[in-house]
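Figure 6 in text form: structure in, sequence out.
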């Protein structure tokens, strides 16, 4: 690959940073463009279509995250890889960068070898993606051409890393490239005559079997259907021996005298592993390591629906640290954060069942979700939590008792008592309010309020 054809756009409001990066990149013969703010970067990217964008996060006006969101929302620039550059290295900033569409993250001060390696890796991936898209288009065209073109096709597909198969109307494999053998651990000899459905896990094998049967039975496949295709989807493949792994799967009908399909398979295991790690991080409160509000909302709704479906109870405790603003004002936010962490651990120590959840809702608010729990059971747990926190004896001289305490609101959904999950949430919130009004350092149960 010739670096002279690669265009890189640097976006930074600091001229010294632009000069430094420009000098580094020009040493590698890259074409370099520069913008001092997000608005100008968007205009340049839309007009020039660079191969890569290095984007500073902290800029006046439109910051890097906002700029990236605009770039990813526009058709002409959404496929351009964006690498964030920043002096900040907090995990929250990295997660934010990835959530708005960033492809990578480089910390300041710059290290030449790291910058070169990351840029080369992303450029290589970008070029490979373009090659893959071009190859798929070429393959559909080449199968309609003469023997000379077929030989050329054979050379191309033999060197592509993605699996390529041609199958008949029943799904029997007629041709595979070597990548299919590597992906699924079958020899080329074993793949000959196999049905491609054997390479898919359930329920996907069954779905494609029905798809093939429907087309074969109704005779829908003919020369008029040459443009029909099932879109690229992410499904589960199955290797020899039964090991399952995620794949991108493209299924195209080929124009021919007989019914034929072209299948392109791309292994996305590494991508899915990274995606799962990021998803897990996005569900954790970074201060307390408890489930965060996003994870709580998903879990709470899922458990409420489960309780409706199974006609089981669902208990919910909302917890608030008493006079916590005064604690922060008295001892400072560092002590406040330490207090939150200790109380989070204390609450978690009471909850024993793996199916229960402790979450931090935000600020000094916590929650406990207890599926299939009786009223007596949730009251017992709430009191244990209250006593556990009080036993910490965390000094709080601005509080009436001189130590940190908590108030708790309890609500329980049994069968059809609540119309929706939010109603149960509001009931616990009301109970918590009553506990505060009654003097704090206690629990109240919503049923007892009427």
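Output sequence:
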């Amino acid at each position: 690959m010739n670096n002279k054809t690669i265009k890189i756009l640097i976006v930074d409001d600091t001229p010294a940073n632009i000069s430094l990066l420009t000098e580094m990149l020009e040493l590698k013969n890259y074409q370099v463009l520069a913008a001092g703010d997000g608005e100008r970067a968007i205009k340049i990217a839309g007009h020039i279509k660079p191969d890569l964008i290095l984007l500073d996060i902290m800029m006046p006006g439109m910051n890097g995250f906002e700029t990236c969101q605009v770039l990813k929302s526009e058709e002409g620039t959404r496929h351009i890889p964006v690498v964030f550059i920043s002096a900040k290295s907090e995990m929250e900033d990295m997660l934010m960068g990835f959530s708005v569409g960033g492809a990578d993250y480089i910390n300041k001060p710059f290290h030449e070898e790291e910058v070169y390696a990351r840029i080369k890796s992303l450029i290589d991936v970008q070029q490979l993606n373009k090659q893959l898209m071009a190859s798929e288009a070429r393959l559909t065209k080449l199968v309609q051409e003469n023997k000379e073109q077929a030989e050329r096709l054979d050379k191309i597909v033999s060197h592509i890393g993605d699996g390529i198969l041609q199958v008949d109307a029943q799904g029997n494999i007629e041709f595979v490239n070597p990548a299919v053998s590597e992906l699924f651990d079958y020899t080329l000899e074993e793949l000959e005559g196999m049905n491609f459905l054997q390479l898919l896990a359930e329920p996907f094998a069954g779905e494609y079997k029905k798809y093939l049967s429907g087309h074969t039975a109704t005779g829908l496949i003919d020369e008029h259907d040459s443009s029909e295709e099932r879109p690229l989807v992410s499904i589960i493949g199955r290797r020899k021996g039964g090991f399952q792994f995620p794949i991108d799967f493209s299924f195209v009908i080929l124009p021919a005298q007989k019914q034929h399909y072209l299948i392109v398979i791309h292994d996305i295991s590494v991508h899915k592993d990274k995606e799962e790690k990021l998803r897990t991080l996005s569900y954790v409160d970074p201060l307390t390591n408890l489930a965060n509000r996003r994870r709580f909302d998903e879990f709470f709704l899922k458990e409420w629906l489960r309780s409706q479906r199974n006609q089981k109870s669902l208990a919910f405790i909302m917890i608030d640290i008493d006079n916590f603003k005064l604690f922060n004002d008295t001892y400072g936010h560092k002590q406040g954060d330490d207090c939150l962490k200790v109380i989070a651990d204390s609450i978690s120590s009471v909850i024993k069942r793996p199916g229960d959840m402790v979450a931090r809702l935000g600020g000094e608010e916590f929650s406990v979700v207890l599926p299939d729990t009786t009223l007596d059971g949730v009251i017992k747990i709430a009191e244990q939590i209250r006593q556990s926190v009080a036993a910490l004896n965390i000094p709080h001289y601005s509080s009436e008792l001189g130590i940190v305490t908590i108030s708790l609101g309890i609500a329980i959904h049994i069968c059809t008592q609540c119309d929706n999950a939010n109603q149960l949430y509001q009931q616990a919130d009301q109970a918590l309010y009553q506990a505060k009004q009654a003097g704090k350092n206690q629990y109240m149960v919503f049923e007892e309020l009427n």
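Caption detail: The first strand starts at residue 7 and ends at 11.
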